[in-house]
Structures are given as structure tokens and as C-alpha cells.
Write a structure and sequence with these properties.
The complex is a heterodimer of chains A (about 325) and B (about 200). With about 325 residues, chain A is of the alpha/beta class. Chain A is built from twelve helices and nine strands. Chain B has one domain: Rossmann fold (3-Layer(aba) Sandwich).
Chain lengths: ~325, ~200
Amino acid sequence: MKRHLISAADLTRDDAVLILDTAEEMARVADRPIKKLPTLRGRTVVNLFFEDSTRTRISFEAAEKRLSADVINFAAKGSSVSKGESLKDTAQTLEAMGVDAVVIRHGASGAPYRLATSGWIDAAVVNAGDGTHQHPTQALLDAFTMRRRLVGRDAGLGQDLAGRRITIVGDILHSRVARSNVDLLHTLGADVTLVAPPTLLPVGVGHWPCEVSYDLDAALPKSDAVMLLRVQRERMNAAFFPTEREYSRRYGLDGDRMAKMPEHAIVMHPGPMVRGMEITAEVADSGRCTAIEQVANGVHTRMAVLYLLLGGNEPAVTHARTEETK
Amino acid sequence: MDAEVSDAARPVLEGPDIARVLTRIAHEIVERAKGADDVVLLGIPTRGVFLADRLAAKLAAITGRTIPVGSLDITMYRDDLRLRPARALARTDIPADGIDGRLVVLVDDVLFSGRTIRAALDALNDIGRPRAVQLAVLVDRGHRELPIRADYVGKNLPTSLRETVKVQLDEEDGRDAVLLGERREAGVPAAEGRRNETARSGER
């Protein structure tokens, strides 16, 4: 169980800082004329996507190719999965092909954990988002972006986010990004506040290592970073709030609200942004919004994760807590 | 498993000797490069970087010019990556003007199998196209596994494979010394110990 990245909660502080530091070195590769390393030459990585995702898949693919891995993209649509093949059969097919790592996105929470622990496959498993559960590389790239902006590119090396105040706003209920971020930011020493309408908070949120509030305006002046989440219409199977306009008025970030944030504070968004709903164009296009930076940082961070999991004969990342939860 | 330097390690170079050989190497670089006009020094982490910094200071004193100096981490280019756990990366810092058309002098503490330098040449390939590449090392302990030799050598130190060479530098270890010791790996036959050592650090 030391070879997989299933949940941001599995990472120790030292693991997380090592990944962020490694990502900083990977970022230097992106500044070179030849953005390629021979590190994973001869290794095969499969991007196994049971759920649509362009951003995450392309990001992983870019990271894998920059490390010279052989990349196989597998989309469930139009594959044998739509003919009824199970996850187990798919896994065994990949195993027979000698795959070294599987990057999996699945609509069902827990699918990557099942793949990693059931013995179907020997490869390292990286969770690229499972249902409403976890998206650890997103949390890592967010932490990387925060550390760069709030601590500094070089000054941040070896540092965590101790004492930084992060506010996460929006649809917490359906958000694996929020869950992963709360876990990782807590590990890195940051204070997290979740802000959402009561209907968009999951049961048991009181036990999460964070504060919960319904009042965005109160949270803004004491935030170092404000992370907006997309309102996931596709997962909305009930009336969670009266109208989009009302949501936007209470939980959307516009120029006036942004002015209440401290001078140094940044606005983050995992994308895709729904302009006019959770964020206005004015905020999205301002220099304080890191949405585009987050995309670039995603490649560096995923390169770091893949290198640390696959670069040697055993991974450099120790998943101390996974052993306990098993 | 890291082979440790035994307590009986014997210093073969000490502080003043190291300063002297670096001064000599600096003069040799100026002589061969006819003034060090286009020289860029790239140290290989960890101790190669400190040596490169010291050489740059000496070159600046000799020529009166600032010599660009950087560091080149070769971890991701190693040929033994898969033989041992993934390791943390060190810093790669290429001087702002790059290395295209320049004379790059790679600087490392110990030259051993030559595999680290092979990896460094690969890494340079991805970064730019130097006019020429030269190699400066503090100690050459022999036992090359690749057709590589150094242009500037602080001290040739014929060693047996049962011996270890450990370089200590003030910046990292609090003192300047080159220590020669006996390997201390209980129960490891010589041939295997050799393989481990190559896998461990390539050059050391």
C-alpha cells in the first residue's frame, strides 16, 4: 500500500512537502527549450477515464509525456465497459499488458481504492477523481499554487502552509476538490473555512478538520486565499438553493466582495469556471485569480507525483495513514 | 544501504590542500580556456555546487570578471534510477544567459564510475548546446565504467574497491577534508558491495 495515491488524507506532511518541492523542480523543466526528461522511459501509464474530463486527462498526459512514459488513453465511452465489462476485467486486461501505473477517474467513490487493494493489478494507482470522494492531485496543485503565491517560489521550498487561512466556497456536498483540499491543507498546517448554503454541506462536516460558516462576507477579510467551487449542475438532483441569482448574490465573488479581501489574498478556482454564477468575469480576469496558473501547476505537480511513485524501485512517498485505515 | 566511512578514515587532503588544488584548477582553466571569457561553471549537487562556487570566486579573482555559476541535478538522468527508491531532487540552476556556445566546466567532488558524468552530459543535451564541455573534479579515485576522464583533477587517488572516499566541505559538513576509509558493510561480498556502491552514488 505504499505505491498508490488514493486520497490526500494518506499523505503525511513530509510527503506533501516533498511532492511540492519536487514539483518546483519539475516547473524548471517547463522553462527549458526541451521540456522532456528521460526519467520514466520504458514505463507504461494508462489513463483510465470512466468519467469525462478534458482538463485532468490532458494534464496527466502532458506530465507523463514530459517524463517520457508510454501513455495509453482509455475512455470508457465506446470501450468494452459500455458493453458491460467490469472494473475487474478491465484491470486484468491492463495487468496482462504489463502496465506500470494506472491513473483512474471514476464516477463511483472508492473505485481507485478498490483497484489498488483488490489484488487485480500490480500497477501503481493514482486517483484522478472518484465520485464525490477525493481528487488528491488537485489538492496538491492547489497547495502548490498557494505556497508559490503566499510564501514565494524559492522561499517556499521545504515549507508548509502553517497559519495560512483558506476559505473554500460553494458546493461542498458534491465536491471531491473540497474534501481533498481540507485533508491536505490541514496536514500542511493551514486553517480552512468552508462557506456554503446549509443544503450544500455534507452530513458529518462538523467532524472535518475545518471551520464551517454560512457567511462569505465575514470570512473574506481574514482569508489569504479564497477558493471558489463550481456549482455542479450535473450532480444537482434536488433543489439545493432557490435560484441561481440568489446563490450568486450570497456566495458568488464579484469585484466588491474581492475588495474586502486582504491585499495579498488570491482567488482560486479549480475550473471549469461558470462566469456570472460563482465568479464574475471581473474577478476571473483579475491578476489575483490563479485559475490559469493552477492549470500549469497541475502538470508540474502530476510530474512530481508520477516521478516519486514510479521513478525508483519503490516510491519515495510513505503513506503512513493508509496502513491504519486498511 | 549506504556504506559508511569507518572511524579509521584517514584524511588524504585537508583544508589548506583543498584550497591549494582549487587555486591550481582555476589557473589551469584560465590557461586552457585562454582567459575564461566564455566559461560557465556547473556544479553537480551536493558538494560539486560548493566546489563550483569556490572555483568561480577564484576565477573572478584571477580574471577580474564575474564567472556564471550554476548547479545541475542529474537525478532524473541516472541509469540506476530503477535500482533503488525514488530520491528527492536537488536544485538545477542554469545561469540566465544559458549555456549555448559557452565552455561548460562540470564540477564534482569525486570521479568514480563515470556514470554521474554520463548523466550530466545527457542533461546538458536537453538544456542547450555548449561550445565544449570539460570536467573538473576534486578527487579521481579510478574504477571507471565508461570512457570518461576529467580535464582538471585535484588529486589522483588510486583506491581499492574496498575503500571509500568521502569528501567533506565546510558549507555542508563544517570542515574541509577528503577521507579515505574502509567499507563497512558486514556480510556483503566484495562484488556485491561494489554493485551497491555504484548504484548508491555513481561516483562516490
